[in-house]
Amino acid sequence: MPSSRLSLAALALTFSALSAQAADFTISSRDIKDGQALSNAEVFNGFGCSGLNRSPQLSWSNAPAGTKSFAVTVYDPDAPTGSGWWHWTVFNLPASTTSLPAGINAQGHGLPAGAVQGRTDFGGSSFGGACPPAGDKPHRYQFVIWALNTEKLPLDAQASGAMLGFFLNASALGQARLTATYGR
Questions:
Q1: What are phi and psi of 130, to 5 degrees?
Q2: Is residue 48 within 8 Å of residue 134, measured between CB atoms?
Q3: Which entry of 49, 120, 141, 148 is 20 to 30 Å from 85 by CA?
Q4: 93: Cα separation from own chain's centroid
Q5: How far is CA 98 from CA 57, 70, 94, in A?
Q6: Alpha carbon distance 45, 151 (integer Å)
Q7: Among residues 117, 116, 101, 111, which one has the least CA distance to residue 152?
Q8: What is the distance between the alpha carbons of residues 123 and 140, in angstroms, rounded to a whole number?
């Protein structure tokens, strides 16, 4: 077999092994369930919504080999903005982290040392719950745990979701996703 075919075969086997490993990477939560509606605890308090604005408990397991850190994003692709809505970003979570407690506040209480909460589309650097426009169809809220090949991203608490997304996609080894819904 020519060397180019061997290289393609090796690449295909490597991709297949990485895909299988990433498929084992999972997320779970005591507070939210995949495909189910969020509770009032995860709804924003403002913009016409009156929820508790509490971040949910999240756990993950079976991260891909070589994971050096994690990030968490919460994103609404259905927001009527043309670019979605970033509800929460957390990055520079150490590789030893496998869960986050519910109720992480703006000061980061409950986050491991060194973790950073980035700026959301609400304008702050903390969890911002669901709050779709009244009468709109229920929106999807994508809770994603990103396994990264770097210990730290070169960003701070002012980093936008789009900027973080750029770095996440460049460093991702895998992701685990849970999608909940909410409408009013």
A1: -65, 140
A2: yes
A3: 148
A4: 12
A5: 11, 9, 9
A6: 34
A7: 116
A8: 20
H-run or E-run covering 181: strand 172-182
| Distance separating alpha carbons of residues 67 and 95, to the nearest angstrom | 6
What are 100-145's pLDDT values in tens digits?
Answer: 999 999 999 999 999 999 999 999 999 999 999 999 999 999 999 9
For the whole model, what pTM was predicted?
0.87
How many C-beta atoms lie closer than 10 Å to residue 116's C-beta? 21
- Residue 13 pLDDT: 44
- Number of other CB atoms surrounding residue 21 within 10 Å: 17
Under 8 Å between Cβ of 55 and 88: yes
DSSP 21: H
Shortest CA distance to 99 belongs to which of 110, 109, 89, 108?
A: 110
Tens-place pLDDT, residues 29-81: 999 999 999 999 999 999 999 999 999 999 999 999 999 999 999 999 999 99
